[in-house]
Queue: 4 jobs
Job 1
Amino acid sequence: MLGDKAYSSRAIRHLLRRRGIAVTIPERRDQVDNRRRRGALGGRPHTFDRILYRDRNVVERCFARLKQFRAIATRYDKLADRYRAGVVLASLILWLREPAR
């Protein structure tokens, strides 16, 4: 799982670790300072792969492009399958607009 600093909490990390999910979440500055202040009792720093974290940007940009469609951003549809169909259509439109590489 790739997440931003908002997901850097002990409870979330514990839940994901218990389920066997690999986590790449940067630590918040206050958590780093608190761990250092506690010394040996603060524990080891969490593993963080900077190279893998860069891939998160691709997903964020995809969501930003999808939210350019008003029906997706405001979720006019009440039924989940209709909303999903709108997301699929918006994705196809964005894919077809993309210049050939």
Job 2
Amino acid sequence: MTQALLMRYLLWPLVKFLGAFIVVQAIVAAMNWVERRLLGLIQARLGPNRVGWHGLLQIVADPIKFLLKEDIVPSSSEKVAYFLGPMLPLIPTFMVYCLIPFGPPPMFIAARVNVALLLVLALTSTGVYGIILGGWASNNKYSLMGGLRSAAQMVSYEVPFGLSIVGVLMICGSLDLVRIVDYQANNAWNLFPQIVAFFIFFVSMNAENNRTPFDLPEAESELVAGYHTEYSAMKFAFFMLAEYSAMIVNSCLVTLLFLGGWTMAIDGKGLTTQQLVSMGVLGGIIGLAIFLTKMMFFMFVYIWFRATFPRFRFDQLMDLGWKWMIPLALGNIVVTGVFVLIGQERLMYWIGLATLGAIGFHIFRKPVPAVKAKTAHEVAHAS
């Protein structure tokens, strides 16, 4: 009995966590290469293409370089805090992998908790402490400014980030990520009734990860490299690893909360969790493939944003968070509460679908041909 309990509650969850950890770290390494190559393609240049076929071995060369580089520690830094800085953002991100279901349970989740979403938010919000600590402990003015900016940015965008999820919770009625996914399979993706919440969540998760156009804590044009200016070798690599791991966590969250997770079903018709589980190992692999496809889409959107948008000024960053995102999130909660109270959640799906249709029509409609301005000679001749 003791061995069975040990296998069920310790060894088997540990094996699943290690499997998820290895897969996620492989994705992190691959995304480093993908981002550099994709940015090069968008910016009409080559990107890494010397090491291996199309530069694929660059993901092996970079860790070797970080391991062999000299680790320089500033003589005036606060040594303990300086060493802890890169670790603090990394550890909570790794712990979150235990709670995220990457496919149909119980195969692809290490520990299913009925308040998993609350634990994920609590753990991911602690990552900023490492950035603040590293920026302060470096005893560098640029690093300190980067740490202060990160603290202000986290305070500003953690609020709309959390408020955007409230509408989803009001509709689904659970903090269990598996139940949220199952609700969407039996009804429709939360993207439709919560289109405003999706937009707020998506913008806030970019700000949470300090990604362009919200990369103010490490603005190269102003702060050299921001909070990690004084970090080198593996300590810098830990900061980069934490950033990419947090990007994957947020991409998983937006997939689970708004895009139906590993399912492809509407009103219970299609690939629901029950149907995937009934298919055995094949169903689990299909569910995992669906989940990873949705997740990787948002990873590519991160890169697309970096190549497209210029960096905000810091006052613009604060104005967007406090004057627009938070009021919009509160308004979405009020509207969702009214629809839930009168029992018309289904109407929200149609309103969201119509909104998406209007946005798509505006984006893809045929552009009006530009009218060529007349020259001064043509105007004089016409008169």
Job 3
Amino acid sequence: MSEAIHENKMGTMPVKRLIVSMSLPMMISMLVQALYNVADSFFVAKISEDALTAVTLAFPIQNLMIAVGAGTGVGINALLSQSLGERNQKDADKAANTGLLLMVFNFILFLLIGLFVTVPFVNSQTDNATIAGYATSYIRIVTMVSAGLFFQITFERLLQSTGRTVLSMASQITGAVINIILDPIMIFGLFGMPKMGVTGAAVATCIGQSIAAVLGLFLNLKFNKEINLSMAQILKPEARIVKKIYFVGVPSILMVSIGSVMTYLMNILLGGFSSTAQAVFGAYFKLQSFFFMPVFGLNNGLIPVLAYNYGARKKARINEALRFAVVLAVIIMCIGALVLEVIPAQLLLIFDASEKMLDIGIPALRIIGIHLPLAAVAITLGSVFQAFSKSYYSLIVSLGRQLVILIPVAWLLSLTGVLNNVWWCFPLAEIMSLILTVVFFVRVRKTVIAAL
């Protein structure tokens, strides 16, 4: 049923306090997620460096699942928040219910990928039979039991869209904590469980996601009174709503999917040097999540604020929210860059790094870490593109950064035969990304924000 929509806190609460209240729970939950990422690799690295490399090779597929789920979620989030800002309850409900049906199709897609794509995907990145065996078993489990991931993302997005970020945090933290607890039990066979190795890490991941999804459903039904979930609406999607969701969602999906292509190609390129270089690349991605995840959490809190106030035509609140978020993001990333520069060896030892891994990893972390503050500005300004249904700008920026610049530059630098040179592709690509983002932001500011 439809109810009159009252003014949401996103249109009335003081902006700085609103950004903190919206973003802090998601930043905390994403920090817990980052802790899980590191803990997962920490336990896997206890098996062997080959096991750590295998999880690195699996990352592009995992990232692709997150891209499809989270990208669809961005479309749901933007439509739902904007509909609430416009006081259009009917479309708000349809966005939520249609989004749930779309996640069923996402699960079916990756079930098929797990069945038919896994082996050729893994074999294209390594000829090491041990690494290939680990990676194949890991990928098949996380893809074929991915329903938990997709529904967890959706239910958390529904809570975020209506400003209930504390409840969204509860769901995400629950899944991550369960994951962390189950990792050593499943991997090493503790408390009478069978010793499952790398496969155990995948099983722990799926169990954590599934429990978080169930909790997310309960929290939405119990507390999210601004949307009405209905099986009848889920089973009767409207093409108009699907189109609106994917108008914003597809560019977001493609934007994150480009990261999967980039990591896949980097794995192949680094494999030309050694499997240890691939392991270092994987370790970096786990470590950088401690700083990128909070910034993404800030963005997830910022996007519904921008979308709501865009729908409510409150330009001053949009401008204040952006200024505050950029400052917070830069501070977080400056701390991250400092950590990577000062204690790279200690960070790598989390993964039981060998002397060879330390020799490769220490200069790698220091070189790559340079780009973090630049990324903070680009990521935060890019939230405008998603909030105002201009996600194709984000797609262009991501495409330019990761495929047009980063991979070709990495390949050219690899021709020098010096692995340390390859890592410079990250700062160089980020400079280009920031320039493009600023250009597009100025355009959106003039054509969209100024017109409010």
Job 4
Amino acid sequence: MNRVYIKTYGCQMNERDSEAVAAMLRGRGYSMVDNEFDADVVLLNTCSVRDQAEQKAIGKTGYLTKRKRSNPDFLIGIMGCMAQNRGTELIDKLPDLDLLVGTQKFHAIPDHLDNIIATQKGLGPRPSTVVDLEEEEGSQNTIRQHISDERQVTAFVSIMQGCNMNCAFCIVPKTRGRERARPIEEIVDEIEELAEKGTKEVTLLGQIVNSYGRREIPIRNKKSPFVQLLEKVQDIKGIERIRFTSPHPRGFRQDLVEAYRDLSKLCEYVHLPAQSGSNRLLKLMNRPYSRERYLEIVDSLRTMVPNVYFSTDIIVGFPGETDADFEDTCDLFKEVSFDMAYIFKYSIRSGTPAAEMGDQISQEVKESRNQRLLGYLRESSLSRNESMVGTTQEVLIEGRAKRGELYVGKTRGYRNCLMPASDRLVGELVKMKVDRATQSTLYGDLILSGIDETDTQPVSLSNSN
């Protein structure tokens, strides 16, 4: 009864939380398995940002309960945002659940599983579904327990929990609570441990990551707590690249813009959620910036780092979005020429202000607008990638590709790369000569040590000894 499989839905924060739970379970003697069919326990780490994500998790749970009816000792747990959002109503819908754990109680999962398994062995009364959804003071300081002896080339590091922004469409303040920051010293200690084990790139995570510490940590030398943290991470030996997600345009002050110029390890890639290019819609969404302010941030970053890469989040079909509003979004999309975008069709989230708004947009209109933006994205992403053909790019090799014999890595601009390499180069920064590009991927050969980076005839490792 100690084999556990965790299936994760949603964002990088959820991925990071799943890593933490897995590490805590290993420490308690559980073994993690790669598929649900080998598991005695299946935990679903859920997402509530869109209804579709919740329905997928509910459907998966329903499928798993069929197995539970033939094997009563098989355990099913739901944790994370859907658990927090829907609460005990999930038990009415899914009465075979063994465990329901909210976003501030991940660290309690090993104890809960231990207790449930003990009852199966006759060491106590068989409980009904174990429910743990309460807020917990200091829960943000329990999210570092994911470091294992295995090397991680790249790693997510949560620096805070919660969100105070209250966007009209968003369920996150309900599911994650108010902003709570971890101390800078603890974050630095965690990243130093990762670096000692071979991590080269860290991504700092937070719901509004550039709001980090604004209530707990004072501004120093005109620098926000978040920029102070970036400077500390810059000084960590062994860390070669720094990323973060997701920021909010409201918190993108000049000190953060200048950090892209001053911090050599901070990659020239910015995920900057816009949500809409219409000022009218931004007000309805309770997004406290304008289209003009958004473009000012883009321009200031391009002034500091001309080769900067941009990705964004866009919602199409927000209640009341007119054709004119959508055209404003299209114009913004084309003006910035995003390298990557996450385009979402608006989904009603009960308990949010937008759910009560009139003039809901039809699915047909949402789909049409979604496809139009995806078309612009294909054009801009392909154009950017094709512009790199013939150039030499620094690539961090992350491992073998899922298919074939090539290896996968990323540029500083977060472009996917495929190339011939070898296991000894995993975790290394290498130079790759780009010889082909698609919308999503750069292909090339490595320029081996000792060869001039400007050489137009790179050597393929597949032909070397």
